[in-house]
Amino acid sequence: MTEINKVAVLGGGNLGTAIAQGFAASGFVDPQNVAITRRRAELLDDLAAEGFRTLYDNREAVHGADVVILCVQPQQMEDLLDVVAPALDARRQVVVSTATGVSIADIRRWLGPEIPVLRAMPNLGIAIGESMTCLAADEASIDAVPVARAVFDVMGSTLLIREDQMTSATALCACGIAFFLRAIRAASQGGIEIGFHADEALQLASQTAKGAAALLLSNRNHPEMEIDKVTTPQGCTISGLNEMENRGFSSAMVRGIIRSADKAGALYRPGE
């Protein structure tokens, strides 16, 4: 496996910044060995103060990097690859793209067949080491999967999936963190309605949601098995659950995920 000493993050928006912060929090790569770019590099001054290399020149950023992470919008990918392709070294670098809808085949049209190219779909939890990141590789890049896993495992959990599942991963994992945040927000509003101050309600809802997720990850049970433990006959829990189902809670979540997947699949069209 390629030794990972230096990383370049091309695109210092919300996700790129979160990835850089995740590196710092994990200790996996020293901030001074992480280059992060943005057209207006001054917007990365906070990261520069933390020791990261911040710059606007993408071609300069990839020099010496073992892993190059592409964190630009799908519509910006072609221009980015035109710039960095001549500077990449297929013998020692691995490229990982987080751009929704841009396939490995699309990227290879600019970078050629030799360089390992993978796709990753993390979420903003990566900044604190709690991302669920899905990875995909083509046959030519399968040997580089351990490199990508080494990078993203230190910032949460990873799952290797087929590339044709990446759009679904975008909806469930990347968009999904917003869905769960909205559910926590709704729970906290309910807490305010029944007598808690806003900050108390948010703390109670957030820790309760964290505990629920931790139960599933620890016990590996189906959610209904854990739900059954707190739903007694004629009890308050089942009463609340039934009310939420009557109001369409589960169907709204399912439909939201499907809608996001449909939208994600239409974000990028090669040649448009």
Strand residues, percent: 5-15%
The structural class is: alpha/beta
Helix proportion range: 40-55%
Average predicted local confidence, pLDDT = 92
Radius of gyration using CA atoms only: 21 Å
| End-to-end gap | 37 Å
Shape: elongated
Structure summary, number of beta strands: 8
The DSSP helix count reads 12
Low-confidence stretches: none
Question: Could you spell the SSE succession in H and E letters?
Answer: EHEHEHEHEHEEHEHHHHHH
Biggest β-sheet strands, sense, barrel:
8 strands, mixed
Q: Please state the oligomeric state of the protein chains shown.
A: single chain
- Widest beta sheet: strand line-up: 3-2-1-4-5-6-7-8
Description:
Helix 7 (166-174) crosses helix 12 (249-265). It is elongated, with a radius of gyration of 21 Å. Strand 5 (94-97), helix 5 (104-111) and strand 6 form a beta-alpha-beta unit. It starts with 6 loop residues before the first strand and ends in a 7-residue tail after the last helix. It has helices at 14-26, 45-49, 58-62, 77-84, 104-111, 145-153, 166-174, 176-193, 198-219, 223-228, 236-246, 249-265; strands at 7-10, 34-37, 53-55, 67-70, 94-97, 117-121, 131-137, 156-160. 33% of the residues are buried. It has 272 residues and is α/β, with parallel strands linked by helices. The longest helix is centred in the last third of the chain and has 22 residues, at 198-219.
